[in-house]
Amino acid sequence: MSKAPVLEIKGLNVDYGLGEEAVHAVRDVNLTLHRGEVLGLAGESGSGKSTLAYGLTRLLPPPGVISGGQVIYHSDDGEPVDVLSLSNEDLRAFRWAETSIVFQGAMNSLNPVHKVSTQLLDVIKAHDPTSTKAARVARAREMLKLVGISADRMDSYPHQLSGGMRQRVMIGMALALEPRVVIMDEPTTALDVVMQRQILSQLIELRERLGFSVLFITHDLSLLVEFSDRIAIMYGGRIVEEAPAAQLYGESLHPYSDGLLHSFPALRGPRRELTGIPGSPPDTRGMPSGCSFHPRCPKAFEPCADKVPLLGFPDRPGEQTRTVACWLHPAHEPVS
Questions:
Q1: Bridge-partner residues for 8, per DSSP?
Q2: CA 150-156-162 angle, 5° bins
Q3: Residue 124's closest CA among 182, 178, 58, 88?
Q4: To which H or E segment does residue 11 belong?
Q5: How far apart are CA 198 and CA 183, in angstroms?
Q6: Beta carbons within 10 angstroms of residue 240's beta carbon
Q7: Sign of CA dihedral 41, 45, 48, 53
Q8: Looking at domain 5-98+185-280, which CATH architecture does it have?
Q9: What is the mean pLDDT of residues 156-177?
Q10: Which helix (H) or strand (E) holds 134?
Q11: CB atoms within 10 A of CB 127
């Protein structure tokens, strides 16, 4: 039996600009994050991953606008709510307390002129103004300890911490109010591979201990294969494949997913040739007709250039755990 959903993205569309000149950065995305799972979102730069994250949290900078869709949040003790219809006051209460985000380049997101303690305490006080200063300090110390930082570093300034420690502070800040959903937008991009592994291993341990769900966004599919429960692949603003991590790694159905998987070396097993993906990602100001990947696809055939494939369950026996948008595996039941 599948877990209950905690966040459902339904038909989300995000544009930059208005009218005929608008750039359609996210197109009709349907995605579900279940309770307690890590959902990975992968794709090349410019595929719409970060725009999706900022759109579903209503953090889009101008001229970004949400042109359609719903983001349904399922709380533990209440009716489902559409995040896109919340008032500004309700949205302020919702952020950090129910859903938090660790931004891209998170280790540079701390204010350089304020101590770590000040920044942690501000988050807690903003959402729990009736708490005492002693309680807030105790909570901040607990959060630092939780992410592997000694509490005596609370009075340090960001420049006095290493990159990995600043990253851990941001993760601790994101978890300070015990949110049920944590969105991580390429949080380890600027770190070396050893520190990446340490932070991600710690994140998975915290997820198992605290029970929150994670939407993990990265261009590095090799990270997601190891740390995610499910993986969604994004290209040209659309989801083109979604499957359990082991299933996607063992047999990807979309040629784009296969290209990403063959763009990094395997750590174990026989050597294999790294093929990569020819060409460049599409310009969102003028997307190709039909399947947006067809100009780069080695398996493109007649319908690919003219018809947009629907994301759905592939027409193969027993394929109810994955979806794909590809004419090689036409959907017999589209996702709605």
A1: 32, 72
A2: 75
A3: 178
A4: strand 5-16
A5: 18
A6: 25
A7: positive
A8: 3-Layer(aba) Sandwich (3.40)
A9: 88
A10: helix 133-146
A11: 15
What H or E segment, with its residue span, contains residue 73?
A: strand 64-73
Confidence (pLDDT) at 66: 95
The span from the CA of 143 to the CA of 151, in Å, is 9
**Facing residues of 7 across strands?**
33, 73
pLDDT tens by residue, 62-115: 899 999 999 999 988 778 999 999 999 999 888 888 999 988 776 678 899 999
270 Cβ neighbours under 8 A, 6+ residues apart? none
Q: How far is CA 254 from CA 35, 58, 241, 310, 313, in A?
A: 27, 30, 7, 12, 12
In the β-sheet with 64-73, what is the strand arrangement from edge to edge?
Answer: 23-34, 5-16, 64-73, 81-82
Compute the 3-state secondary structure of the chain and give helix, strand, coil in percent, each to the nearest 5: 35, 25, 45
Q: Which string of b and e fits 44-62 if b means at least 16 CB within 10 Å? A: bebbbbbbbbbbbbeebee
**pTM score, whole prediction:** 0.90
Q: Break the chain into its structural domains and give their ranges.
A: 5-98+185-280, 108-178
Each residue's pLDDT tens digit, 108-135: 788 999 999 999 999 899 888 888 999 9
DSSP-derived secondary structure letter, 95: B
Q: Cβ contacts of residue 162 below 8 Å, gap of 6+?
A: none
φ, ψ for residue 110 (rounded to 5)?
-75, 145
Residue holding tokens 């349907």? 30
- Taking only the tens place, the pLDDT of each residue in 194-204 is 777 887 888 88
The encoded tokens of residue 86 equal 């919340």
Task: Determine the pLDDT at residue 2.
Answer: 54
Put residue 94 in one of left, alpha, beta given phi > 0 → left and psi -120 to 50 → alpha. Answer: alpha
Element at 64 (helix H, strand E):
strand 64-73
